[in-house]
Amino acid sequence: MLKDYFVKQGIKEVEIEKFIRTRFPYGDYSKTELQRTPLGIKIIIYTNKPGRIIGRGGKNINEITEMIKKKFGFENPQIDVKAVRNPNLDPRIVAKQIASALERGYNYKKIGNLSMKRVMESGAIGVEIIISGRLGGGGGKSMTGKFITGYLKHCGQPAKDLVDYGFEEANTKPGKIGIKVRIMKEFMDISGEIRKTLEPEEEIEKPKEEEPEKKEEKKPEKKPTKKPAKKPKKTEKKSTKKPKKTEKPKKVKKPKKKTTKKQKPGKRAKKK
Q: Model pTM greater than 0.90?
């Protein structure tokens, strides 16, 4: 009997979670918790944007309570909405953000790297994001993109206790794309202590050899002697240029006159 009771309660939790997820697809919904109280069942909804779930004047919450009464048969359900302190460390919210970005047509490599960087900057120890489906576009073959950084446990009890898991689906034109996100917030030491940061290993410094101290010999101090101030010598610039020679005026030679000899009139007569 007890077994059947707990099985039915687990099935109801899953059905309520699916109902709230389909009711608020863009509310960055994280998870739900069911608590039994003397007044009735209390449903706690963890979300990144509580204003969208609450609505104006609590209109959306009143509608949800009435629908849960009719569908699941609860007498007096109480709904409480709580905001997630650091949404970048919640794997379900991160997977939902990646899915909504892929549906809008963004590249999967760019979104994977950006979300991985954002998670590590918010204080995580390790992250793993797996995006699988028809990522190329145009109805091509299915592909898988893995984005891993930091330190992450993959098996054993520490993987169950310290690693959070989130899954989401994106409906695109080529087909469905699955997003898996695993985030490790804390780290378990060898001694069993849980830490939030990985401390770097301390380097062992080698002892330095002591060098023998050298004795410094004191030198006798010399008294400064005053020297008589020298008078500045007047330096006269000597002219190294030689004096130019005065050129004598050249004598102009007068042209000689040619003298023609006069013949005597008697000689020509003789020759004849």
A: no
Chunked into runs of 10 residues, the chain (272 residues) has average pLDDT values of 79 82 72 81 84 80 84 82 87 90 90 92 91 77 89 86 89 90 84 65 52 56 63 56 59 60 52 44
Q: Which residues pair with 187 in a beta bridge?
A: 195
Domain that holds residue 182: 88-195
Phi-psi region of 193 (alpha: psi -120 to 50; beta: other; left: phi over 0): beta
CB-based burial label for 161 (10 Å; 0-12, 13-18, 19+): exposed
Alpha helices in 166-214 (DSSP H): none
Indicate the number of domains in the chain. Answer: 2
- Could you list the beta-strand ranges (E) of 16-125: 29-36, 41-47, 78-83
Look at residue 239 and tell me if it is in a domain: no
CATH number at residue 45: 3.30.300.20
- Please tell me whether residue 73 adopts helix, strand or coil conformation: coil
